Amino acid sequence: MNPTLNAQQQQAPQKVAMPLRIALLVLPSTRLSCDSLSANPLEVLLPELYQSGLLSSKEGVSQKEALEQIVNIEVDDFEANLKASIQAIDEGKLVQLSTPSQSLLMMPALKAAQLRIHPHAQLAAIQQGNDGVQQTMALALAQAKRDSATVSKIENLHDLNSQQKFTAVHQLITELAFRTRFRDEVNQGVTLGPKQAKSHYWFTQNHQARVTAVNFSHSVNNISAGKQINTSFIITQGTGFIAPKSIVDSQRLQLVLSGDTQTELLTALNRLKAELLAEPNSDSVLTVMRDNLIAFEQTNTRYAVTLQASSVDAMQLELNAMIEALPAVMAEDGLHSYKTPAGSYFTSEPLGNVEKAGLAFVYPGVGTVYADMFSELHRYFPTLYSRLEREGDLKSMLQADAIYHLDAKVAPAMPLGDLAIAGVGSSYLLTQLLMQEFNITPNFALGYSMGEASMWASLGVWDNPHDLISKTQTDPLFTTAISGQLTAVRQAWKLNNTDSDIVWNSFVVRSPSEPIKALLPEFPRAYLAIIQGDTCVIAGCEIQCRELLSKLKKRGIAANRVTAMHTTPAMEEHGNVIEFYTQPLCEELPQDIKFISAASLSGDRRDKAVNEAGAIDSNMIAQSIADTFCNTLDFTSLIHSAQRQGAKLFVELGADRQNSTLIDKIAKLDRSCGAEASSYPCCTVPVNAKGGDDITSLLKALGQLISHRVPLSLQPLIDGLNREIAIRELNSTGLTNHNGIVSGEPDAHKLLKGEV
Length: 756
Description:
By secondary structure, this protein is α/β, with parallel strands linked by helices. The protein contains 28 helices and 28 strands. Helix 16 runs parallel beside helix 17 (451-458) and helix 23 (574-580) packs across helix 24 (618-630).
């Protein structure tokens, strides 16, 4: 929540200074000098400064002339240093303000724009006084021409020395450039739990910039005893962001080996084992991984082995395990795949290559989202988050206020509509991640329940899916008809206003569907809502559902969620569902994806994609969603239909991995009973898992997709490794700042990159 500002802060003085408009960039602490110009690491880490001509000759400007524009100032008296910096900037200079471990580049915002440099932040105001922090901050807000309501973070710090003040400002700029909010260990007297995220994406209201303030105060004892000198800064976000953290590094290793035969694979595995023994340190393995991934992208072999580990020593264990397991996997009667807990993976039956064309994106339904999901993703994919933020209301799309609430119980207790929004939002984000960052395109797409809506929203079919956010939160369809007061159920049961409230619940029960169907006539207000492998979901009047379970002699797990989807009363809303989901379509629709609906499991539509008959239209999509929404969901039959149409490799796009678990159970049940579907290959790939590390889960998914020979780009991994290598080189070569102190910290957040 935004800090509350008092009346003094909200009163703008009549005469105020002009905003400063100084661009700020976080740099490695190496001094920008002629000696550093030939160093390749800096060119990797500071691409915009090279492209602008500041660190390389451009349009006839020599390196020396460019660098003469930069004034280097060591931090020893922070306020005086800033005054000198502003004066130099007013004279057209650029300033590098540094401590031995941290550095900022400062320049006029107009200059940054002319050089096409995207600043991490802008210094908008500095005010100093002794009339109290509140008054000083009011002056600073007035100078920055900012209303107090727009300030999303305030730091009040006392009695710091100059380097500590610089560090505090540097940290605030870094958080802005990371778009990251760090949580305090103790919040309103409650300690942050060990399983809670320590930070998450810094969400803002739609199209609102992040504005921060920092107030320094220190006591004055020599002249005015008992008084304080206060300095207030207003800092706003820039258009740039700190470059992505590397997905793979010295603690998260990934190597890929390929070949057309078992002999070639074993040879490659043993060769890599020897190479790692010869180069065992964490620095050299970065180069090994980078070169390995570049080489793999040039291959077109039949098989690929993906190896993942947390260290070089652990990688040796993975290599040994894979060498031992591979012959059994390659045998004709083998298991076809091998996976280790660390994420190493090999399959002798690739299901996602161009020939098989069996890649299916699966979208989960309502209720899979969880507290603090995706809390780390933005640091690895800042461009993606930036684009999503420009396109729509990202905060609302992910229901951030609930998902990232300090109380982890808030997220699962969200109303049905909010759960639906967050579910679609999480699927949309992960779909864009795979398709835009890794160039992965599915051959098929299908959804579990409301996952069908996620499917159409995520794959470039609906023109503006963001329009459904506010509509979902306010439309009676979600607020009262099939949830809340259950007006659709009251209508179906012919209840009037004087009748008591409906006590509704749903239960997961381990049972085939047939015995449940046989009992339904005895319990007219209990319904078979979902069929999913070896379990079913019944829903309806809680008393009748419990009586049905008792007669069935089965225990049911109560979901304690009120939703009448997939029950007979939902048919009362069929027309409203069609109207709700009749959305304008994109001008260019995907041509190579077959969209499969649970509504196409019988009659003329059986085993046919929604778009198989020709071009899809908005009414066709809405009709399909409504039919799924209002009838029993037979997820087992949906998977079987997808398999008959050619889907083999099911990648779950959404929070957690519930659909992957269900599909695995369906495939296991098929094999155990010798069903027709048991002859169809089936493999699941969850992209996310509750309780797991976001990036580790993603990397494991990528490893499986690589081994299944799904066409994709590994450039995000290669680019990240290039930055990791550059940082190590910058430190190991001993490049120093002007005090001769080794520069920089081996941390990927000390990098510069601009938005696109």
